[in-house]
């Protein structure tokens, strides 16, 4: 069994110049992030927006950090070794402890999740189902929504919300929680939330999702893809015109089980790049594990039109 210092809080570094925007084509699985914007306050602070990024995994730092990466003095290209030229943290960005998943909305507001790191000293168990928001204009962080769980947290599972994504189709947020689940009990929830009204559009209960992604499928139909926190499988549901999941459309997409160098990776992150499903896989066992290792692999799948299934293209 592999253990990781950062567990699943992998390098959540969001750089504007590295966003991937897929173009919808027939029989090609794509997603649309084109509505997402960078926060207004970053430009007001005089930062080089094209070289700016947000990170929740800066060494010896708690919370969210704004970085400006250095540029080469000759050709002005962004540093390939991700050298930091400027580092900024507002006082409100560290008051909620360690953070993980980040997403942006159509106005440049930032949404971010709390996630314990090594111990629970910085993150209170009863606060793990909160979504924080950084205002695009002021740059101040506050609690945006507290999703009260139906269950109680178990001693062997310190986690709550794990995954977060903004849906440009209907300007909504999808997030998933494993609050109260254990290795033997799956009682997590996937939430679909109207970002304007904070109304919960739909919930999928008894589901532990480690990762979420919204995309059109091979028939150009809108789907929610999610990676299971319990095994290496990736599942999906169709989304109807009201934003609800169509339960009868549930299907297994692919799996990371018994592939890769470890054979037990879970889908920590899913994204679609020009028709390729890119999955970041690593171990997840519902508990805090602290060693010096941080091991992950990248799996790339392409949709086979002839076979009507995902085909593993590469593992890195």
From TrEMBL:
Give the signal peptide range: 1-24
Name the UniProt key words of this record, in alphabetical order.
Signal
Listed name of the protein: Uncharacterized protein
Organism encoding this protein: Parasediminibacterium paludis
The major lineage groups are:
Bacteria, Pseudomonadati, Bacteroidota, Chitinophagia, Chitinophagales
């Amino acid at each position: 069994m592999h253990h990781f210092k950062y567990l699943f809080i992998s390098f959540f570094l969001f750089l504007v110049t590295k966003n991937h925007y897929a173009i919808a084509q027939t029989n090609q699985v794509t997603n649309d992030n084109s509505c997402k914007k960078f926060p207004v306050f970053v430009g007001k602070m005089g930062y080089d927006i094209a070289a700016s990024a947000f990170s929740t995994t800066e060494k010896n730092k708690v919370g969210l950090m704004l970085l400006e990466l250095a540029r080469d003095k000759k050709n002005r290209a962004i540093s390939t070794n991700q050298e930091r030229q400027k580092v900024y943290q507002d006082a409100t960005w560290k008051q909620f402890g360690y953070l993980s998943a980040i997403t942006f909305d159509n106005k440049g507001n930032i949404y971010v999740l709390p996630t314990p790191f090594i111990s629970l000293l910085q993150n209170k168990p009863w606060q793990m189902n909160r979504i924080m928001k950084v205002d695009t204009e002021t740059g101040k962080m506050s609690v945006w929504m507290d999703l009260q769980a139906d269950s109680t947290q178990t001693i062997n599972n310190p986690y709550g919300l794990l995954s977060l994504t903004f849906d440009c189709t209907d300007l909504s947020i999808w997030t998933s929680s494993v609050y109260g689940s254990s290795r033997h009990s799956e009682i997590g929830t996937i939430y679909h939330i109207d970002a304007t009204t904070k109304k919960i559009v739909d919930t999928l209960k008894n589901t532990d999702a480690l990762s979420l992604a919204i995309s059109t499928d091979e028939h150009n139909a809108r789907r929610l893809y999610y990676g299971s926190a319990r095994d290496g499988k990736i599942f999906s549901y169709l989304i109807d015109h009201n934003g609800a999941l169509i339960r009868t459309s549930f299907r297994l997409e692919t799996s990371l089980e018994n592939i890769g160098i470890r054979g037990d990776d879970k889908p920590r992150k899913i994204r679609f790049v020009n028709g390729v499903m890119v999955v970041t896989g690593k171990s997840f066992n519902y508990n805090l594990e602290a060693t010096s290792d941080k091991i992950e692999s990248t799996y790339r799948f392409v949709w086979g039109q002839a076979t009507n299934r995902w085909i593993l293209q590469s593992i890195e």
